[in-house]
Write a structure and sequence with these properties.
Distance between the termini: 47 Å
Shape: globular
Number of helices: 5
Largest sheet: none
Number of strands: 0
Number of domains: 1
Structural class: mainly alpha
């Protein structure tokens, strides 16, 4: 059976999604839906080089800031 491996960016996105949803106290499904609505998924994946080398809290702060500016 053929098994395609996930890219580093996608694997990290899944990890970050799970941790961010815990941080916010919401389900990962709700968090993913919010990221989709706010068009954040590509942004987060593009930030992989920085996010995966820093503390997750730094990524959370950046995501929160970006979500806030996307609302305006």
């Amino acid at each position: 059976m053929y098994r395609k491996e996930l890219s580093n960016e996608t694997s990290f996105f899944i990890y970050l999604l799970e941790k961010y949803s815990e941080y916010k106290g919401i389900s990962a499904t709700d968090c993913l839906q919010h990221f989709e609505q706010m068009q954040m998924i590509d942004y987060i994946k593009q930030m992989y080089p920085m996010y995966h080398t820093e503390r997750l809290e730094n990524a959370f702060s950046d995501i929160d800031r970006k979500l806030t500016t996307n609302l305006k």
